[in-house]
Amino acid sequence: MTDRRYITTPIYYATGEPHIGHAYTTILADALARFDRQAGREVLFLTGTDEHGQKIQEEAARRGVEPIELCDEMAERFKDAWDLLDIGYDRFIRTTEADHISVVQAFVQRLHDRGHIYAGEYSGWYSVSQERYFTDKEIAPDRVDPISGKPVEWVEEENWFFRMSAFQEDLIRHVQENPDWIVPEVRKNEILGFLQQPLGDLSISRPKRRLRWGVELPFAPEHVAYVWVDALINYFTASGAIAPGTAPDDPAWDNVGDSWWPADLHLIGKDILTTHAVYWPTLLMGAGLPLPRQLLAHGWWVVGETKMSKSLGNVVDPLQLRTDYGSDALRWYLLREMPTGQDASFTPERFDTRYEELANVLGNLASRTLGMTAKYRDGVVPDAPAGGLDEAIETACADLDAALAAHRVHEALGAAMDFARAANGYVEEREPWAQSKDPARAEDLDETLATLVRALVVLSALFAPVCVQKMEELASRLGLDGVPTLTDARTLSVGGRNVEKGAPLFPRIERD
Ligand code: MSP
Asked: In 9, 335, 369, 491, which residue has its Cα 20 to 30 A from 291's Cα atom?
């Protein structure tokens, strides 16, 4: 693994409110970025909004505003939501930024100059909801798009095409030779299955008379770029590989190695796998650019057994959950509950169960440890051996690393929680309340308390990428200047520190 990581989320359509699905991907990226930073890696964490295309144009018209007004408002809405959920992105890109537009134009001109673009006629079924064409087979029998279930429209128009078919063999080879390029495996197989059919060429433009809200093609000013082409290039723009205004044949394109490109990890939902695993890599091959190192496609949050959708009125609002339970609890629930890569069902009961896990295991360990240190030692951590849980710490760190390396984030968090459980087990085993009654066992009690404080220091580091605020709070109660790195947490001296009990970290929450 390199000591730099470039992690991206999809850029979200600037049409709707941020919902739990958007929140999940973005929190997942944030937690991975925090784990990386904690391990000493330099990180570029990119998110943003997808602001061109028919969907935006239609929504703006419906609201009676200009598209850019809608985008300005929605971009702020997403930024505010991410702030409230403690998402510390490094860059928020908007596809209407002048710099991005300039890179898109240079990118498509480069494809054109390299002979990969031609003019043609298109006819097919278009879904505005997904901003994609679908085949007859895919929309049968109800003429709806297979992802959103919304009606498709028949479109016939003159378009510019990217010779995607020319890269089919190279793409298949790439997927086969790099078995971890698309994870989980089921998604890799889905793409290999898709690539068994001849790959068509990709329509990369829309005539302006039908769609004016997009990036003008430099070689055909009567057309705008197809929104997915514009959107995918965001990852490249934000890498800083090509300065805006760079000519399409500048040598800089052949030497992007000093920038953040290629991305290390594109996090996406399984709904947008084809665009990321077929359109994007072939476009990059056409431009002669390196491919992203990995795609991780996660599953869907559903409600009960049902898909979340505005029309069903069952969309879960992440900001309401934050108001009710706090950002840490929401982040914990989403990342701990969904097996990375699979679908998961949102239920209030499971939310409560996961919250209680935080309260009864981690919260409880913190209150008893800090409470006993206050009661038996006036809040000063004894200067005594603190290694009573070293083996458990070793196991937790190894399990966490292995799970993260395998992109099993839920298991990584499970390993952290198992360690908190082990520390509670240590309390039961050592019975500090009994040790405190026997003056001959004062040293044993010192060792118990020092070991437990060490455990809390380590736990603050293990949980911090997810429970951002509460672990800051815990670190401050432990007399630390911020949450330590995991390496420091295992070695810094705990003896002599003043600790403070404070209120429960995860208080009981009454549901009405
Ligand atoms: N704008 C495109 C992406 C362009 S990326 C170059 C787009 N936007 S979107 O607003 O529809 O967001 C899609 C993403 O939101 C999904 O890929 C996924 O990350 C997330 N989710 C939306 N609904 C979801 C669930 N119900 N469950 C989990 N995540 C889902 O597509």
From this structure: 335
